[in-house]
Amino acid sequence: MNPVIDLLKSHRSIRKFRPEPVDQETVNQLVAAGQSAATSSFIQACTVIQVDDPEVRGQLMECTGGQVYVGSAPRFLVFCADMHRHQIACTMHDAEMRSGFTEQFLTASLDCALFAQNVVVAAESAGLGTVYIGGIRNQIQRVAELLELPELVYPVFGLCLGFPDQDPETKPRLPLESVLKHERYDDSQEREIIAAYDEEIREYYRTRTGGNKEMSWSEQISGMLVKEARPHMMDFLNSRGFLKK
Prior knowledge:
By secondary structure, this protein is α+β, with helices and mostly antiparallel strands. It has two domains: 3-166 and 228-239, NADH Oxidase (3-Layer(aba) Sandwich), CATH 3.40.109; 176-214. The chain contains eleven helices and four strands; from the N terminus they run H-H-E-H-H-E-H-H-E-H-E-H-H-H-H.
């Protein structure tokens, strides 16, 4: 329809990067683009931490289970949901901030995600590649300590950033009729839609891996969702002042 939509639909995760650096001014502009994302009630609850120290990068890589591109990407950013800044703003007016509400957790996390997606789109428009790193939540307490995060701040995900050294195919998404529903939630044809999509994904994996992997989307999801999903997160978030009421 237009170049922006074409760019959005061509998104791929990039995990191999050329060694050439991404200059600081480019990073600054990408983060400024992130700041222009929609923000709930002008709350602006995202803070980005740029990690350049190789030793810290190495420890963050360990926290993710050894995802080597965390250490090798030219730039690595950590996006944090941040209500600490708002606490400071309240003290500037001798106001006692009421924190710990689930709604505050949601708005801060959503603000962070919207901010980051603006950064990704801006980066891709400049010829850069990215990959989100949710694996920093595997050892989220250690990540918080490494980055010296105060109360009411938690790391949502990381982002590797650099010039691509690979050209992967775009991964097929669910059919539009599965995600765009009209007037009400109608799942009467969902099994059939998923079954057809399963075959598309199976062929995608078969082609991409030279036949070494054959798995459908529903198989992948069912295998993932029978396992615990970072059960430490609730206690961690409570300890940071989130999700108390």
